[in-house]
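Sample entry follows:

_____
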Amino acid sequence: MHLTQSETIQFDDFLKVDIRVGTILETTLNQKAKKPAYILKIDFGDAGIKTSSAQITEHYQPEQLIGSQIVAVMNFPPKKVAGVLSEVLVLACVSETEGTVLLQPTQFVSNGNRVL
């Protein structure tokens, strides 16, 4: 989706989206997903450990993800995804040519830090 000038938002609208950094603790294949996906347990520091189902199997192996930091939206309502209560939305770049690539900090930051 491309934003046009008429679809711009105010900075206060952006601030409503709670985007934070977390570290992946566990990764398992989501056997119930129609498209290949992992169930992720992610540590967000003071915000707690959250679960997400993410379709990121194309470029990532489960053992490779353990200890990786990711970026996620924290304040969407929890949603049942292929039998998993997904509490956060892990952010990624999605492209027809490159596939799905996680957004990740380039340096370690504390879990739970807000992205602005």
